[in-house]
Amino acid sequence: MQFAEYRAFEVQRQEASNAMMGLLAGAQLASHLLQLTAGSDTLLPEVFPRVPHIRRFNLRTEAALSILQSADTHLGAMSVPYALALHEDFLKTCVGLLIRDGKAPSNAANAVLAQLHDVIETATCKTFDPDSIIQIDTLRLMRNATIHSGGRAHQPLVDRVALWTPTAEKGWMRIAKKSLAGIAVGDRVEFGHAELILTLAVTKSLGRQTNVILRDSLSRSLWANLVIEDVLAEEPGILNRHQLERKAAGKARRYYAGLGLTDSELSAAMLVVLANT
Question: Which of 12, 68, 128, 165 is the most exposed place for a label (fewest CB within 10 A)?
């Protein structure tokens, strides 16, 4: 099942992933290209005058190569918070659906990333994969250390890593190729290509888990309403009831198949949604 907000999250996540990988690859491509000018004292704006904004990179080859070859660390430090922000926004949307369905209190809308998975678990009496939660909590605390602690490990990060399970560490090592076990307060925290890939993998997994949890937790009446709203969001000009019923049935089969919504449920939802628009 893929409800509208989940589909939007997947598109955003994939677009962000492609953009981040493009920037990383672009830095390496530029690094290889600059090797052709090695030893030159000419500044880059003179070598590549038609490249937009090149004057902001007014360096000789050796200095430019040094920056480009370490670009993955800087891009990781910028990209990981962005990927986490996309995940947080999706979770907030999901919590909004739980509130709408009476499963979560209204003040749950104020929850932040550190709280959102717990909010969903409490509201649904279902659980996320614990290793995924440990991993995203670690990444979140690494982000916080980068932003608020000058890129140095703080006590919350050290405490979280100390709670790693063997399987959580194994999963981390499989992608990042290094472990944070034994990290101490004040140690340097760095993001790179591996940590970015890990963040994208963890948020993808948790996004899918959230999708399944909502599928099994929200009421059928709300799901039926969401199908109608999904259709109207894509085609707001639909006025013919028969056309709306037909499109809703098609949308339900394509994206909400796991629910098995009936025609009568969709018809009842259509009356509710149209009455409120």
Answer: 165
Biggest alpha carbon–alpha carbon distance for the chain = 76
Question: What's the one-letter identity of residue 16?
Answer: A
How far is Cα 130 from Cα 139, in angstroms, rounded to an integer? 14
CA 27/CA 66 separation, integer angstroms = 11
Q: Which residues make beta-bridge pairs with 230?
A: none
- Tokens 């749950």 belong to which residue? 108
pLDDT above 70 coverage of the chain, percent: 99
DSSP 27: H
- Residue among 185, 181, 152 at smallest CA distance from 168: 181
Buried/exposed code over 19-51 (b: 16+ C-beta within 10 A; e: otherwise): ebbebbeebeebbeebeebeeeeebbeebeeee
Cα dihedral sign for 176, 213, 86, 250?
Answer: positive
Interval 53-68: pLDDT, tens = 888 878 887 788 777 7
Average of per-residue pLDDT across 233-244: 81
* Predicted model pTM: 0.87
Structure tokens at 145: 């250390």
Cα–Cα distance between 211 and 250 in angstroms, integer? 20
If you search the block for the tokens 């937009």, which residue do you land on?
52
3-state secondary structure of 206: helix
For residue 254, what pLDDT is reported? 93
Integer CA distances (angstroms), 209 to 72, 164, 219, 253, 258, in order = 29, 20, 18, 21, 14
